[in-house]
Amino acid sequence: MKILVTGGLGFIGSHTVVELQNEGFQVVIIDDLSNSSINVLDGIEAITGKKPVFEKLDLKEKQDVINFFEKHKDIAGVIHFAANKAVGESVNNPLMYYENNIGTLVYMLQQITKLEHQNFIFSSSCTVYGQAEELPITENAPVQAAESPYGNTKQVGEEIIRDTCKVNEKLNTIALRYFNPIGAHPTAEIGELPIGVPQNLVPYITQTAIGLREQLSVFGGDYPTPDGTCIRDYIHVVDLAKAHVVALQRLIGKKNASNYEIFNLGTGTGSSVLEVINSFEKVSGEKLNYKIVDRREGDVTAAYAETSYANDVLGWKTELTLDDAMASAWKWEQKVRS
Ligand code: UFG
Protein backbone atom coordinates (compact mmCIF):
# COMPACT_ATOMS: atom_id res chain seq x y z
CA MET A 1 0.00 0.00 0.00
CA LYS A 2 1.29 3.39 -0.98
CA ILE A 3 1.41 6.00 1.80
CA LEU A 4 2.28 9.66 1.30
CA VAL A 5 4.28 11.25 4.11
CA THR A 6 4.64 15.03 3.80
CA GLY A 7 7.59 16.42 5.73
CA GLY A 8 8.92 12.87 5.70
CA LEU A 9 12.54 13.98 6.06
CA GLY A 10 11.86 15.93 9.25
CA PHE A 11 12.25 14.76 12.82
CA ILE A 12 8.97 12.94 13.47
CA GLY A 13 8.34 12.32 9.77
CA SER A 14 11.55 10.37 9.20
CA HIS A 15 10.96 8.14 12.23
CA THR A 16 7.43 7.47 11.01
CA VAL A 17 8.69 6.55 7.54
CA VAL A 18 10.96 3.95 9.18
CA GLU A 19 8.06 2.42 11.12
CA LEU A 20 5.84 2.42 8.01
CA GLN A 21 8.49 0.64 5.98
CA ASN A 22 9.06 -1.81 8.83
CA GLU A 23 5.35 -2.66 8.57
CA GLY A 24 5.60 -3.22 4.82
CA PHE A 25 4.07 0.02 3.55
CA GLN A 26 5.44 1.60 0.40
CA VAL A 27 6.29 5.20 1.26
CA VAL A 28 6.40 8.29 -0.91
CA ILE A 29 7.92 11.33 0.79
CA ILE A 30 7.25 14.95 -0.09
CA ASP A 31 9.56 17.47 1.55
CA ASP A 32 10.73 20.95 0.53
CA LEU A 33 14.05 20.53 2.41
CA SER A 34 13.48 23.90 4.12
CA ASN A 35 14.21 22.41 7.54
CA SER A 36 15.60 18.99 6.69
CA SER A 37 18.40 17.28 4.82
CA ILE A 38 18.37 14.94 1.84
CA ASN A 39 20.86 12.76 3.76
CA VAL A 40 17.99 11.60 5.96
CA LEU A 41 17.03 9.29 3.07
CA ASP A 42 20.31 7.41 3.59
CA GLY A 43 19.59 7.10 7.31
CA ILE A 44 16.16 5.63 6.57
CA GLU A 45 17.70 3.20 4.09
CA ALA A 46 20.42 2.18 6.58
CA ILE A 47 17.74 1.21 9.12
CA THR A 48 15.12 -0.38 6.87
CA GLY A 49 17.18 -1.56 3.89
CA LYS A 50 14.86 0.39 1.63
CA LYS A 51 15.00 3.89 0.24
CA PRO A 52 11.57 5.53 0.08
CA VAL A 53 10.48 7.36 -3.04
CA PHE A 54 11.26 11.04 -2.58
CA GLU A 55 9.90 14.09 -4.35
CA LYS A 56 11.15 17.58 -3.51
CA LEU A 57 7.99 19.61 -3.56
CA ASP A 58 6.85 22.87 -2.00
CA LEU A 59 3.24 22.35 -0.93
CA LYS A 60 2.59 26.09 -1.32
CA GLU A 61 2.83 25.52 -5.08
CA LYS A 62 -0.78 24.52 -5.63
CA GLN A 63 -0.32 23.32 -9.20
CA ASP A 64 2.56 21.08 -8.11
CA VAL A 65 0.32 19.54 -5.47
CA ILE A 66 -2.39 18.92 -8.08
CA ASN A 67 0.16 17.35 -10.44
CA PHE A 68 1.55 15.16 -7.67
CA PHE A 69 -1.85 13.69 -6.82
CA GLU A 70 -2.65 13.19 -10.53
CA LYS A 71 0.45 11.01 -10.67
CA HIS A 72 -0.30 9.12 -7.45
CA LYS A 73 -4.03 8.37 -7.55
CA ASP A 74 -3.37 5.04 -5.82
CA ILE A 75 -2.34 6.56 -2.49
CA ALA A 76 -3.96 4.61 0.36
CA GLY A 77 -3.28 7.18 3.07
CA VAL A 78 -1.57 10.46 3.86
CA ILE A 79 0.35 11.45 6.98
CA HIS A 80 0.80 15.20 6.93
CA PHE A 81 3.78 16.49 8.94
CA ALA A 82 4.97 19.26 6.65
CA ALA A 83 4.74 22.51 8.61
CA ASN A 84 6.79 25.18 10.32
CA LYS A 85 7.07 24.62 14.06
CA ALA A 86 9.08 27.32 15.80
CA VAL A 87 6.90 29.17 18.28
CA GLY A 88 9.05 32.34 18.45
CA GLU A 89 9.45 32.56 14.69
CA SER A 90 5.69 32.32 14.28
CA VAL A 91 5.20 35.33 16.57
CA ASN A 92 7.55 37.38 14.37
CA ASN A 93 6.25 36.07 11.07
CA PRO A 94 2.61 35.06 11.45
CA LEU A 95 1.71 35.24 7.77
CA MET A 96 4.48 32.84 6.85
CA TYR A 97 3.00 30.40 9.37
CA TYR A 98 -0.57 30.84 8.16
CA GLU A 99 0.47 30.42 4.54
CA ASN A 100 2.74 27.48 5.15
CA ASN A 101 0.72 25.56 7.73
CA ILE A 102 -2.84 26.48 6.76
CA GLY A 103 -2.67 27.19 3.02
CA THR A 104 -0.88 23.92 2.33
CA LEU A 105 -3.33 21.94 4.47
CA VAL A 106 -6.17 23.28 2.34
CA TYR A 107 -4.39 22.34 -0.89
CA MET A 108 -3.76 18.85 0.45
CA LEU A 109 -7.37 18.29 1.50
CA GLN A 110 -8.63 19.58 -1.84
CA GLN A 111 -6.70 16.82 -3.60
CA ILE A 112 -7.18 14.06 -1.02
CA THR A 113 -10.96 14.44 -1.23
CA LYS A 114 -10.69 13.44 -4.91
CA LEU A 115 -8.92 10.16 -4.14
CA GLU A 116 -10.48 6.74 -3.89
CA HIS A 117 -8.90 6.15 -0.45
CA GLN A 118 -9.26 9.26 1.68
CA ASN A 119 -7.31 8.48 4.84
CA PHE A 120 -5.60 11.43 6.49
CA ILE A 121 -3.51 11.78 9.65
CA PHE A 122 -2.78 15.29 10.93
CA SER A 123 0.08 16.37 13.22
CA SER A 124 -1.48 18.40 15.97
CA SER A 125 -0.12 19.44 19.33
CA CYS A 126 -0.96 19.56 23.02
CA THR A 127 -0.40 23.27 22.64
CA VAL A 128 -4.13 23.48 21.77
CA TYR A 129 -4.92 22.90 25.48
CA GLY A 130 -2.81 25.81 26.79
CA GLN A 131 -2.56 25.54 30.57
CA ALA A 132 -5.23 22.93 31.19
CA GLU A 133 -7.18 23.21 34.42
CA GLU A 134 -7.03 19.49 35.08
CA LEU A 135 -4.08 17.16 34.79
CA PRO A 136 -3.55 14.72 33.20
CA ILE A 137 -5.08 16.24 30.08
CA THR A 138 -7.86 14.31 28.38
CA GLU A 139 -8.98 14.79 24.78
CA ASN A 140 -12.10 16.47 26.17
CA ALA A 141 -10.19 19.28 27.86
CA PRO A 142 -11.23 22.58 26.31
CA VAL A 143 -9.12 24.09 23.56
CA GLN A 144 -7.88 27.48 24.73
CA ALA A 145 -6.92 30.63 22.88
CA ALA A 146 -3.55 29.99 21.27
CA GLU A 147 -0.42 31.61 22.70
CA SER A 148 1.26 31.89 19.29
CA PRO A 149 0.44 31.87 15.57
CA TYR A 150 2.11 28.43 15.45
CA GLY A 151 -0.28 27.11 18.09
CA ASN A 152 -3.15 28.76 16.27
CA THR A 153 -2.25 26.95 13.04
CA LYS A 154 -2.75 23.65 14.88
CA GLN A 155 -6.13 24.73 16.23
CA VAL A 156 -7.33 26.14 12.92
CA GLY A 157 -5.90 23.10 11.13
CA GLU A 158 -8.04 20.83 13.29
CA GLU A 159 -11.11 22.97 12.59
CA ILE A 160 -10.49 22.90 8.83
CA ILE A 161 -10.29 19.12 8.91
CA ARG A 162 -13.39 18.78 11.09
CA ASP A 163 -15.42 21.08 8.83
CA THR A 164 -14.24 19.22 5.73
CA CYS A 165 -15.18 15.88 7.28
CA LYS A 166 -18.72 17.12 7.89
CA VAL A 167 -19.34 17.45 4.16
CA ASN A 168 -17.12 14.61 2.92
CA GLU A 169 -18.30 11.29 4.24
CA LYS A 170 -15.56 9.47 2.39
CA LEU A 171 -12.85 11.47 4.14
CA ASN A 172 -11.51 9.70 7.25
CA THR A 173 -9.15 11.62 9.50
CA ILE A 174 -7.31 11.42 12.78
CA ALA A 175 -5.67 14.39 14.50
CA LEU A 176 -2.84 13.35 16.80
CA ARG A 177 -2.04 15.80 19.58
CA TYR A 178 1.59 15.28 20.46
CA PHE A 179 3.05 16.15 23.81
CA ASN A 180 6.85 16.70 23.76
CA PRO A 181 8.60 14.44 21.22
CA ILE A 182 12.28 13.82 21.98
CA GLY A 183 15.05 11.29 21.33
CA ALA A 184 16.28 9.63 18.18
CA HIS A 185 16.29 6.25 16.51
CA PRO A 186 18.33 3.81 18.67
CA THR A 187 20.64 3.16 15.71
CA ALA A 188 21.48 6.90 15.59
CA GLU A 189 20.94 6.78 11.83
CA ILE A 190 18.24 9.47 12.10
CA GLY A 191 17.38 12.05 14.76
CA GLU A 192 16.53 15.68 15.36
CA LEU A 193 18.53 18.26 13.38
CA PRO A 194 17.58 21.74 14.56
CA ILE A 195 18.88 24.54 12.37
CA GLY A 196 20.69 27.24 14.38
CA VAL A 197 20.21 27.63 18.11
CA PRO A 198 17.78 24.99 19.38
CA GLN A 199 14.56 26.29 20.89
CA ASN A 200 13.67 22.99 22.54
CA LEU A 201 15.05 21.56 25.73
CA VAL A 202 16.58 18.25 24.70
CA PRO A 203 18.62 19.38 21.67
CA TYR A 204 19.80 22.31 23.78
CA ILE A 205 20.96 19.87 26.47
CA THR A 206 22.85 17.62 24.06
CA GLN A 207 24.41 20.56 22.19
CA THR A 208 25.59 22.01 25.50
CA ALA A 209 27.09 18.71 26.59
CA ILE A 210 28.93 18.30 23.27
CA GLY A 211 30.36 21.82 23.59
CA LEU A 212 28.36 23.65 20.93
CA ARG A 213 26.56 25.79 23.53
CA GLU A 214 28.13 27.11 26.66
CA GLN A 215 25.31 26.72 29.13
CA LEU A 216 21.69 25.63 29.25
CA SER A 217 19.32 28.23 30.63
CA VAL A 218 16.56 26.59 32.64
CA PHE A 219 13.62 28.89 32.13
CA GLY A 220 12.11 29.51 35.56
CA GLY A 221 12.79 27.91 38.93
CA ASP A 222 9.80 29.35 40.73
CA TYR A 223 6.88 27.51 39.15
CA PRO A 224 4.38 25.90 41.52
CA THR A 225 5.83 22.41 40.90
CA PRO A 226 7.80 20.14 43.30
CA ASP A 227 11.22 21.41 42.13
CA GLY A 228 10.10 24.78 40.75
CA THR A 229 10.68 23.94 37.05
CA CYS A 230 8.06 23.31 34.36
CA ILE A 231 6.60 19.88 33.81
CA ARG A 232 6.08 18.28 30.39
CA ASP A 233 5.27 14.85 28.99
CA TYR A 234 8.37 13.83 27.01
CA ILE A 235 7.59 11.06 24.54
CA HIS A 236 10.22 9.04 22.67
CA VAL A 237 9.95 9.80 18.95
CA VAL A 238 10.00 6.08 18.09
CA ASP A 239 6.92 5.45 20.25
CA LEU A 240 5.29 8.49 18.66
CA ALA A 241 6.13 7.25 15.16
CA LYS A 242 4.57 3.85 15.89
CA ALA A 243 1.33 5.57 16.93
CA HIS A 244 1.05 7.00 13.42
CA VAL A 245 1.22 3.54 11.89
CA VAL A 246 -1.45 2.27 14.28
CA ALA A 247 -3.68 5.28 13.52
CA LEU A 248 -3.25 4.76 9.79
CA GLN A 249 -4.10 1.07 10.08
CA ARG A 250 -7.23 2.07 12.00
CA LEU A 251 -8.37 4.22 9.08
CA ILE A 252 -7.36 1.73 6.38
CA GLY A 253 -9.16 -1.06 8.26
CA LYS A 254 -12.23 1.19 8.65
CA LYS A 255 -12.15 0.72 12.43
CA ASN A 256 -12.62 4.41 13.18
CA ALA A 257 -15.73 5.38 15.15
CA SER A 258 -16.24 8.66 13.29
CA ASN A 259 -14.56 10.31 10.35
CA TYR A 260 -12.83 12.87 12.57
CA GLU A 261 -11.06 11.49 15.62
CA ILE A 262 -8.57 13.05 18.05
CA PHE A 263 -5.99 11.29 20.21
CA ASN A 264 -3.46 12.56 22.71
CA LEU A 265 -0.03 11.03 22.26
CA GLY A 266 2.05 11.13 25.40
CA THR A 267 3.45 8.84 28.07
CA GLY A 268 1.09 9.99 30.82
CA THR A 269 4.04 10.92 33.04
CA GLY A 270 5.14 14.48 33.66
CA SER A 271 8.83 15.26 34.07
CA SER A 272 10.32 18.52 35.26
CA VAL A 273 13.17 20.24 33.45
CA LEU A 274 15.53 19.24 36.28
CA GLU A 275 14.39 15.61 36.01
CA VAL A 276 15.19 15.67 32.29
CA ILE A 277 18.65 17.07 33.07
CA ASN A 278 19.17 14.39 35.74
CA SER A 279 18.16 11.67 33.31
CA PHE A 280 20.62 13.05 30.77
CA GLU A 281 23.48 13.17 33.29
CA LYS A 282 22.72 9.62 34.42
CA VAL A 283 22.66 8.00 30.97
CA SER A 284 25.51 10.03 29.47
CA GLY A 285 27.84 10.22 32.45
CA GLU A 286 28.32 13.90 31.53
CA LYS A 287 27.89 16.83 33.90
CA LEU A 288 25.67 19.46 32.32
CA ASN A 289 26.43 23.15 32.70
CA TYR A 290 23.10 24.81 33.42
CA LYS A 291 21.70 27.80 35.23
CA ILE A 292 18.21 28.66 36.38
CA VAL A 293 17.12 31.96 34.81
CA ASP A 294 13.87 33.89 34.40
CA ARG A 295 10.76 32.25 33.03
CA ARG A 296 10.27 32.15 29.25
CA GLU A 297 7.22 33.99 27.99
CA GLY A 298 4.35 31.76 26.92
CA ASP A 299 5.41 28.64 28.84
CA VAL A 300 2.68 26.78 30.70
CA THR A 301 3.48 25.36 34.15
CA ALA A 302 2.59 21.76 33.54
CA ALA A 303 1.20 19.56 30.77
CA TYR A 304 0.98 15.80 30.59
CA ALA A 305 -1.38 13.46 28.82
CA GLU A 306 -4.17 11.23 29.96
CA THR A 307 -3.31 8.27 27.76
CA SER A 308 -6.16 5.85 28.38
CA TYR A 309 -8.15 6.84 25.28
CA ALA A 310 -5.19 6.21 22.96
CA ASN A 311 -4.24 3.08 24.90
CA ASP A 312 -7.74 1.56 24.81
CA VAL A 313 -9.09 2.73 21.48
CA LEU A 314 -5.95 2.83 19.35
CA GLY A 315 -4.43 -0.11 21.17
CA TRP A 316 -1.13 1.73 21.42
CA LYS A 317 1.01 2.68 24.34
CA THR A 318 4.53 3.96 24.87
CA GLU A 319 7.23 1.38 25.53
CA LEU A 320 10.34 3.52 25.93
CA THR A 321 11.41 5.56 28.95
CA LEU A 322 12.78 9.06 29.45
CA ASP A 323 16.21 7.49 30.02
CA ASP A 324 15.92 5.60 26.70
CA ALA A 325 15.04 8.85 24.95
CA MET A 326 17.90 10.81 26.53
CA ALA A 327 20.40 8.04 25.76
CA SER A 328 19.29 7.94 22.11
CA ALA A 329 19.40 11.75 21.81
CA TRP A 330 22.94 11.73 23.19
CA LYS A 331 24.07 8.93 20.90
CA TRP A 332 22.67 10.87 17.95
CA GLU A 333 24.32 14.16 18.99
CA GLN A 334 27.68 12.40 19.32
CA LYS A 335 27.30 10.81 15.92
CA VAL A 336 26.27 14.02 14.17
CA ARG A 337 29.25 15.97 15.58
CA SER A 338 31.86 13.26 15.05
N1 UFG B 1 13.35 24.87 28.43
C1 UFG B 1 14.42 25.38 29.16
N2 UFG B 1 15.51 25.81 28.47
C2 UFG B 1 15.61 25.75 27.11
C3 UFG B 1 14.52 25.22 26.37
C4 UFG B 1 13.40 24.80 27.08
O1 UFG B 1 14.36 25.45 30.38
O2 UFG B 1 16.63 26.16 26.56
C5 UFG B 1 12.17 24.39 29.16
C6 UFG B 1 10.91 25.13 28.80
O3 UFG B 1 10.76 26.27 29.60
C7 UFG B 1 9.86 24.07 29.06
C8 UFG B 1 10.56 22.76 28.76
O4 UFG B 1 11.95 23.05 28.80
O5 UFG B 1 9.53 24.07 30.42
C9 UFG B 1 10.23 22.23 27.39
O6 UFG B 1 10.44 23.24 26.43
P1 UFG B 1 10.44 22.94 24.85
O7 UFG B 1 10.71 24.23 24.17
O8 UFG B 1 11.32 21.80 24.56
O9 UFG B 1 8.96 22.45 24.60
P2 UFG B 1 7.59 23.21 24.83
O10 UFG B 1 6.82 22.40 25.81
O11 UFG B 1 7.75 24.63 25.14
O12 UFG B 1 7.06 23.19 23.35
C10 UFG B 1 6.68 22.01 22.77
C11 UFG B 1 6.87 22.07 21.26
C12 UFG B 1 5.96 23.06 20.63
C13 UFG B 1 4.55 22.87 21.10
C14 UFG B 1 4.51 22.84 22.60
C15 UFG B 1 3.15 22.53 23.13
O13 UFG B 1 8.21 22.41 20.95
O14 UFG B 1 5.99 22.87 19.24
O15 UFG B 1 5.36 21.83 23.10
O16 UFG B 1 3.09 22.76 24.49
F1 UFG B 1 3.74 23.87 20.68
How would you characterize the overall build of this protein?
- By secondary structure, this protein is α/β, with parallel strands linked by helices.
- The protein folds into two domains: 2-182 and 234-265, NAD(P)-binding Rossmann-like Domain (Rossmann fold, 3-Layer(aba) Sandwich), CATH 3.40.50.720; 201-232 and 268-303 and 319-337, UDP-galactose 4-epimerase, domain 1.
- Helices cover 40% and strands 17% of the residues.
- It has eleven helices and 13 strands.
- The strands form four sheets. A seven-stranded parallel sheet has the order 3-2-1-4-5-6-11, sandwiched between helices. A two-stranded parallel ribbon has the order 7-10.
- Helix 2 (40-48) links the parallel strand 2 and strand 3 (53-56).
- Helix 3 runs parallel beside helix 5.
- It is globular and about 55 Å long.
- The model has no long low-confidence stretch (mean pLDDT 97).
- Residues 85, 87, 125-127, 151, 180, 199-201, 204, 216-219, 230, 232, 273, 296, 299, 303 line the site of uridine-5'-diphosphate-4-deoxy-4-fluoro-alpha-D-galactose (UFG).
- The site of uridine-5'-diphosphate-4-deoxy-4-fluoro-alpha-D-galactose (UFG) has 21 residues, from helix 7 and strand 8.
